[in-house]
Amino acid sequence: MVTMIPSSLCETCSRMREVVTPKGSRFLLCQMSRTDPRYAKYPPQPVVRCEGYRAAVEPEDEPDDGESGEGTAKLR
Ligand code: SF4
User: Fold this and answer.
1) Atom of ligand 1 nearest to the CA of 52
2) Ligand 1: residues whose CB is within 6 Å?
3) What is the per-residue pLDDT across 58-75, written as a single tens digit (0 to 9) for each?
4) Least buried of 15, 44, 56, 74, by fewest C-beta within 10 Å?
5) Please, what is the average pLDDT of the chain?
């Protein structure tokens, strides 16, 4: 039997900063926690719904064919 682990919104959120300890443990730091007490510094994972979510866009995925690229950016 395979157990599926749901992915977290934090993984593709522009407000997340990845923190990796020297031992290799990985934590997802929510930068919204700096200014808004409703957000935990390290939210319990997975986060499946969040009002603060903003999709991160990778700049290298923007088109270079002269088009504006609006609406075509890929998510992480
Ligand atoms: S704003 Fe929400 S989705 Fe984004 S990093 Fe914080 S908790 Fe995760």
Assistant:
1) 1
2) 9-10, 13, 15-16, 30, 32, 39, 43, 47, 50, 52-53
3) 766 555 554 444 444 445
4) 44
5) 84
User: 74 C-alpha vs ligand 1 centroid, how far in Å?
Assistant: 19
- 66 occurs within a structural domain: no
Q: Residue 36: which domain range?
A: 9-54
Answer whether residue 19 is part of any domain. Answer: yes
Residue 37, Cβ density class (10 Å: 0-12 exposed, 13-18 middle, ≥19 buried): exposed
Q: Are 46 and 6 in contact (CB under 8 A)?
A: yes
Task: Return the pLDDT at 67.
Answer: 47
* pTM as predicted: 0.72
Please state the domain count of the chain.
1
